[in-house]
Amino acid sequence: MKFDAKSLVSTMAKFDTKPFVSAMASIMVMRTIKNELIPHELLSFFQCGVDHLSRRFSPQFTVVIEEFQGMARNQVFEAAEAYLGTKATVSAERVTVSKADDHKDLSFNMDRNEEVSDDFEGVSVKWKLICIQVDSSRIRHYDNDSSAVAEIRSYELTFHKKHKNKIFNSYLPYVMEIARQIKQGNMAIKIHSNEYGYWNREPVKFNHPMSFDTLAVDEKLQREIVNDLDKFVKAKEFYRRTGKAWKRGYLLYGPPGTGKSSLIAAMANYLHYDIYDLDLAVVGDNRNLKDLILGMSSRSILVIEDIDCTIKLQNREEDTEASNNGHKVTLSGLLNATDGLWSCCAEEHIIVFTTNHKERLDPALLRPGRMDKQIHLSYCNFSAFKQLAMNYLCITQHELYEKIEQLLGQVEVTPAEIAEELTKDVDATECLQDLIKFLQEKKMIKEEVKNEGNVKEE
Ligand SMILES: Nc1ncnc2c1ncn2[C@@H]1O[C@H](COP(=O)(O)OP(=O)(O)OP(=O)(O)O)[C@@H](O)[C@H]1O
Ligand SMILES: [Mg+2]
């Protein structure tokens, strides 16, 4: 018997033939065995019908999560990959292991066609990684030069139909959130720097060890800063509701060596944000500046150090190229870049300006809403000293502390100066004695200067 498969398939498709498909399929299978003559199209049509019927009566529901959506990677697939990596080592039979250059830890994943079970609030689900090999020319996102065969990957998530709502509304968002946390913990922080109008293609791994545990600032100020950062990170909904861009500006000011750059490092390590260290002096013009800020990723810190020195930004009225020592970035350009409408394009930006001379800044830069928080980093008090002694000498108490506390109340000394004294010797007592000598000398110089002033006045 000969089939005109195409016309048979289209004829059957016009009618609701599904209830008959199963029976027909069995007949055809029998005939196939006898005659080996069933055309491919017809068989796959029956196969579809059988699958459809079995799904209809099955209590299971399956969500297919493909790796690509057009050219872009599907974020749900990426999240599932990261999330299942943590489960695979426990419940899969075979796992793959890899490590990317910018990752701190090994990444595990389920192998092809492996299954992983998971439980969420009493609901059991099954994940399966499906990999199909195809001709690479058929896939748009695939680099055709590298291989003739490509793999189309997808996850199948299967669970009981009655849990559909819970899976869509709670479980999948939960998977996305856990994956975000895993990625955040695994990715090394990077520091980006700019040359002219673009960020360097190869950001450097940020290895600064400073943290809020080692930063020596007044305890109360430190708590205030950490609380502010915590509030900012959790405030997505607040920023959305109030129509504000999700960004926060900090101005760090104080004498050299009081920990402004160290605080930025502690912030980046605490939030796990990349740093974009912007050198305004080499930015061509306002347009370049805008492009640079648009080129930053979300969840990052934009740093402009020594804002008073890099370019002349004092006077907005004189905001012309000529009055700006030939620099084409102007104050209004900078304000627009950090403040303007399009600055909302990315989310979770922290902007930090530092200066040794707050009084030299244009008030426009300090207006509330621009610099949300101004943090004064000042000379070392006793509480900050104790932190430094802990960092460098690993001590919390010493008989010389009383003397040091007294001297710290009489002279102005920066944490950087103290840090230098505490690293001069290996022995803690000798270091503290050196420090006392250093503080006494400072005190003497201060008194001499004061006396000279008094003599002049007389
Ligand atoms: N508050 C601090 N806590 C711990 N270490 C500090 C602190 N301040 C300064 N230091 C030490 O002094 C060094 C210089 O400090 P830092 O670069 O943070 O100062 P700064 O305020 O940014 O100075 P500048 O105004 O010159 O840029 C740091 O590498 C660190 O070792
Ligand atoms: Mg600095």
UniProtKB/TrEMBL annotation:
Its cofactor is Mg(2+). Gene3D superfamilies: 6.10.280.40, P-loop containing nucleotide triphosphate hydrolases. It comes from the Eukaryota. Keywords: Hydrolase, Magnesium. GO terms for biological process: response to stress. Residues 246-381 form the AAA+ ATPase domain. GO terms for molecular function: ATP binding; ATP hydrolysis activity. This is AAA+ ATPase domain-containing protein.
